[in-house]
Structure formats: structure tokens, C-alpha cells
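Section 4.2 – Deliverable D4.2 (structural model, holo form)

The reporting period included a commitment to supply a predicted holo structure for the target in complex with adenosine monophosphate. Inputs used:
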Amino acid sequence: MSPNNTIGWRMDNSYVTLPEIFYARTEPARSPSPELIVLNYPLAASLGLDTDELERKEGIDELAGNRLPEGAEPISQAYAGHQFGHFTMLGDGRAVLLGEQITPDGKRLDIQLKGSGRTPFSRGGDGRAALGPMLREFIISEAIHALGIPTTRSLAVVTTGEPVYREETLEGAILTRVAASHLRVGTFQYAAARNVVEDLRALADYAIERHYPEVKGASHSYVALFEKVVERQALLIAQWQLVGFIHGVMNTDNMTISGETIDYGPCAFMDMYDPATVFSSIDRQGRYAYGNQPGIGEWNLARLAEAMLPLFDADNERAIKIAEDKLSAYRELYHKHWLQGMRHKLGLFAEEEQDGELVEELLTIMQNQGADYTNTFRALTVDEWSGVPMSETNVFKKWFGKWEARRARQSETKEESAKLMRASNPAVIPRNHRVEEALEAAVDRGDFTVMDQLMNALAEPYAHTKEQLEYMAPSSSNVPYRTYCGT
Ligand code: AMP
Ligand code: MG
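Output (C-alpha cells):
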């Protein structure tokens, strides 16, 4: 390690080997007086980074874009996307990819600064981010990770010392995001829109190399790549549904090829079970409502298939047939993962014909009774019913009898079943009012203890500890919760 790289960077830059249309060389803007707000110690360690060094001036300067990590070749990436159904050319308007860190265990992970100033893709935007939304991404992405769901990670948040102007003046901040890659459905759409098959092919080869090297030998590796993405997304969205996570902006530029959750803008967790739940202030039609997410996943994958058609077959008709055939696997895969996850949430091991019905019945009762999604499954898990008024109703008692009979039919013990439920039903989720409270303390008062405590409770959601109890309660407010795009 060279003397000016005591932090532990081991950067490589494979993305710049792609054709030049896919990126623009871009230096992050300077931050006049950066301050470290949060650092993710376990993540830093897994990246092979020295946290003591990251906390020193040089480290903070790197997280603030004032100094480049050794080996970095900063770029902003080009991509396109369907935003609320409308196709647009986009690109990193406020993010810079520093490079790819090769971790001690040999993984290659993108290190990206988000909020680091204007880029050639900024269009009318200022390239900046405010502290609140960056801390929000930090909290929720790490909570999603702790829930066992694939996601980009958050290494650090620094303030820049420069204000950003929205409806009010806010503190500017930069989030360091870590991702398997930032390849999106929208990256393929961008390549397809440019209409040079060789560029599209280069992108697909790169995606295979980086995420699905196992398909290299397949008889048709591009079709196999598409199948892999379909599989990963079916699993990812099933996992979101099972914990009640609502992404909020499932535009095709916010869907990864790797199958990681990305871009935490107006996302939030559902309280009361209701498929129509939508939090985002800009989603007036409810396009990205909870119950629509699986279908939107399929819609987005259809856009990916369209972009990849020239790689599937030189004959367009035949290519479309291949695309339709491979996409048709999505629904069944999604349903399989979802139902299996639901079985686990109910402590069921083997499959029985009627399991789907048993689950649907419970969800219908929950919806009619306005029951809290997370707390209902927690109550079933630990058999504690205070704060779950639904448990007193006859419809529920009848369902409960069916469920007990179903559990009694399996050979696994009640203890084994309870253990499976504990591992499948989180005791805590990042409740919207608790996240807001933590952000308010941090942003308005510079008090980070509230956020620290919240993050501690969220770090092991399946632990079911006493300390987590206080984070269970849904908001007592009757005002519907609203989220805003994190700009
Ligand atoms: P998002 O809603 O965060 O997925 O962003 C959608 C697009 O808008 C992406 O191309 C972003 O890079 C771009 N964008 C968002 N905020 C800004 C900003 N403040 N300045 C420039 N571009 C932005
Ligand atoms: Mg985005």
C-alpha cells in the first residue's frame, strides 16, 4: 500500500472499458468545509477500509469529493429510463462513480458519491443533495440490508458546508453509496435508443462478466442473462412484499441488473395492510402502490426485453417470441417466492394445496380490520396480542383455528415452527414516524443520538429483543404519511 493510501483503497475501473457513450469523465465538485456525519463501520471493514483513517481529514476529503482515492477514475454514467411510464434520456445528474473497490474477499463493488455536484447529465438540476434525504437513504438502505434483502449499501454521509436551495435553504450533503454495480434496466434502454448493436452487446457482455459469469458458456448467453435478471427481480420484489416495503419510484432507471434495491427516494414501509398504500407525493395515480409492485416489476422487465431484442435474435419476430417466452416465467417465479416466504412467516415448512388460500384469507381479514402488517405477523410469532384488536374478532379466531390445524398437521415441532417464524417476521421495521423523528433531531438540532438508537434497533430485526419493543408502535397520527422525492 502506498504511503498516501493508508485508507485501504484497492480500486479498479472496469466500467471505463465500455464504449465511451456509456459515461462521461467527471470530477466531483469541491466541498468547502466537509464534516463527517455518519460512517458505517462494519461495511467499511468489509470493504477493507481503515475507519480510523477514513475519519481523519484525508478520509473525509475523499468522502466529500475534495480528494480522489488512489486508483479512482471518476465518471458519471449515462442511462435512460421510463419515469412514471414516460421514456427519457437521463444519466447520473448528481452522482459520480469513483471506481470499483476490490474487497479483501475478492468482490468488486462500485463506490459512488451521490450529491457531489453537477455532471454532463445534470440537465436543469444543481447536482446536489440535502442532508435529510441522504440520511434517510442511509437509514433505510441499511435497514433493508439487515432484513436480508439485496440492496445497495451506505458507507457514509458527509455535509459539504455548502447550502442547497429547494423550497427552503438546506444543508448540502454527500452519501457514499456502495453497489454490486449501477447497471440499470435504463442502461440497456440507453444503449438500445442509441441504436448501435455493438454497444448494446458490449454492455450485455459486461453485465454477464460482472454479475452472471455462469451464463458465459450457455448456448444463448444473452437470453440467459435476461432470464437471470428476471429471476433476481422476481425474488427481490417478493422480498419487498413480504416485509411491506414500498419503493415509491420503480422507474426503469431505478431497477438494477444485479437485483439489488436501489434509489431510496420516497420509499416507506406500510403500516396497515392495504394493497393500495402509496406514500409518494408525486405518485398521484398510485402507479407504484404496494399492490402494484409485482406487476410493475414485470412491466419494467418487458422494457429490458425490448431493449435486448437485437441480442436475442437477428429476426425481430423470433426475438419477440423469445422475449415473451422468457418474461412469462416472472409471474410464476414471483408467486413461488412470495408464497414460500408467506409459508415461512406462518411457520409452515412443507407445501399444502390450500396454503395460498390460508394466506389470502388472513390478508383479507387484516385489510378489513385495518390491522398493522408487521405487528400482526409479530403477534402470531410471539403469541402476544396486546395492541392487535383484530385478535378479538370472530373472523380472525376462525382463521386462527385453521392455521393451528394446519400447523398441527406438519411433522416439525411447534418450537421449530416458532423459530422459523422468528427468522421470517421482523420485530421492527423503520416506521415512518420514527425515521422522521430521527431525521428531525439530526437535521434540525444536530442531535444524532435518536438516529443511532433507531439504527441499533433496526440492525437485527429478527432478534426480537426487549429494546426493540418501543419501535413497534405505528404512528398515532391520522394524517396520511407523505414522502417526497429525495432531491
Ligand atoms: P432519481 O429520482 O433520484 O432516481 O433521479 C432521476 C434523475 O434525475 C437521475 O438522472 C438523477 O441523476 C437526476 N437528478 C435528481 N436530482 C438531481 C439534482 N439535484 N441535480 C441533477 N440531477 C438530478
Ligand atoms: Mg434514480
